[in-house]
Structure formats: structure tokens, C-alpha cells
Amino acid sequence: MGITSYLNFFKRKTPPHYMLMHPLKGALGFGLLSVLFVAIYKPLFFNTSEKFGYYPVLAMYVLGSVLALIPFLFLLRKYLREYNLGNALLFMVLVLSFGGVVGYFLGFALEAHPNSRWHWATFFDSMGNTYLGGSLPVLILWWYGHFKFSKEAGTPTKNQSIRIRSELKKEFLDIDPENLIYLEAEGNYVKLFYDSGQEVTHKLLRSSMNKMEAQLKNFPFIYRSHRSYMVNLYKIEAKSGNSMGYRLRLTNIDAQIPVSRNKTTEFDTVLEKLG
User: Fold this and answer.
1) Closest CA to 145 of 58, 241, 25, 4
2) SS3 156
3) Domain residue ranges of the chain, discontinuous segments joined by +
4) CA atoms of 22 and 52, how far apart (whole Å)
5) CA dist., res. 10 & res. 3, Å (int)
6) What distances in angstroms separate CA 152 from CA 16, 18, 179, 218, one per listed residue?
């Protein structure tokens, strides 16, 4: 297997991690699962202070880590826009490493003999404890996000190419719906913009936007934002405007996509539900 094959393996599409799409609920879920795992199996050792025992120290470690993790998750969500296996693994490493750093500094307040913590052995011990206690919760939440996304989309968890049909029998587009960026009506045609894997390209199909919407109804992340536009909600980088209408900026796209005035409330609701 060559380098290209390895790279393609890590570029495989995967649903977004639950903690990435729902930072608040994801951080709380991570904290709860971590407490349950560590409380049951007790894989970690703390130099507890005279004031606190094992379980209070554990609870304070997890609470402090969760509070620090929430803004960190929002930051990661801003930059990790491409949902593939490589980014999923990177996300989990970043979350656990961040938790290890937070845990190291929390130890100065929670454990006995804080002055003895200023050395690399204690730092790496903190990192090891975080990976030991947090890896299973992070993997569980990844699986849960995978299951939830697949259930909402009504499609199998494996990558699946769908056929988008034209009104002309021999005209169609086979594509992974996650690679769609947006659709734009042009007279009696619809122009589909999508990521080919190397560049953003487009295909013109003879059809109406209503018929396209019907074909893509099983994919809730493909949203009809305007009578002339549909957009992949996971490709949105920025939103501007107000209740009179929005303008959307998408990944690798110069044009801004409109959201109709009468759809702003529904758009916000759908976007919040997905992440």
C-alpha cells in the first residue's frame, strides 16, 4: 500500500464527532462518562489532599476539565470543517491532550504537595491519566455521533453514492451527498456545485429545484434556503444578516448564498438541530 493509499484512507468521509457538533452537550457527556468509567474501574491514582478524598478530587478534576473543554470545542468546530477519518482522529487527540494539560494545572489546587509537581514526569503522568480515563468516553461519543447522524440522514453509516437524476433519461450525477456544496436554479436547469476531491466543480442538470429537493429529502443537511438555492449546512463557514434575510459563506466558494426572509427562523432551528 503506497502513500497515496494511506492518505486516501484517512480522507474517507465520516460523520462529525458528537462533541464537535454539540460542544456543550458533548463536554457534559464526556464528563459524565469519564466519572462513571474511572469510578467503576479506578484506573487512576491521585495524591489526594488532606481535605478531599478520591471521589471528590475526581469530581473536581472532571468538572474543571469540562468547563475548560467547552470553549475549546467551539474553537475546534470553527476550524475542523472537513469531516473525514483523519480529522476525527486528530480531533480526539487534541481533546485528550488538552484535557491532560488542564488536568496537570488543576493538580496544583487539588492534590497534596503541589510544589513537587513542577517536573516533566508529573506532566506526562497527567497526560497518561487523561488518555487512560478519557479515551473510552471519547470513542463512545464518536460512535454515538456516528449513529445519530446516520439515523437522522436515513442512510447507512458507510459512504454511499446517490444518483441525482435529470428530466433527461441519460443525464444524471452520481455523488456522495456530503460532497455537495450547494445547488442553484438556472431557468429550466439546476447547477450543482460539489467537491470532486481535487477541486470544486459543477454540473448542470435539466430539472427544477422542487424535484431536486424531493430527491434529497433523506439528507437533512441539504437545506432549501431560498426558492432558487439549496445548501449543504455542513459547508457553512459564516452567516451574516438579520431577520430580513441571511447571506451564507461556504467552504471554497466565493459566492454568497441567500436565506429567504421567511426562512430565517426555520433555518436557525434546522442548523441548531444539526449542530
Assistant:
1) 25
2) coil
3) 3-153, 162-274
4) 32
5) 11
6) 13, 13, 17, 8
Nearest residue to 209 (alpha-carbon basis) of 198, 217, 200: 217
The pairing of strands 180-186 and 200-206 is unpaired
pTM, whole model, 2 decimals? Answer: 0.54
- Show the cell assigned to 57: 478530587
Q: Which CATH class is domain 162-274?
A: mainly beta
Work out the burial of residue 118: count CB atoms within 10 Å of its CB; fewer than 13 is exposed, 13-18 middle, 19 or more buried: exposed
The order of strands in the sheet holding 200-206 is 200-206, 189-195, 180-186, 229-232, 222-226
Per-residue confidence band for 157, with pLDDT thresholds at 50, 70 and 90: very low
In Å, how far from its chain's centre is CA 152? 15
Q: What is the pLDDT of residues 59-104, one digit of tens each?
A: 888 899 999 999 999 888 777 766 678 888 999 999 999 999 998 9
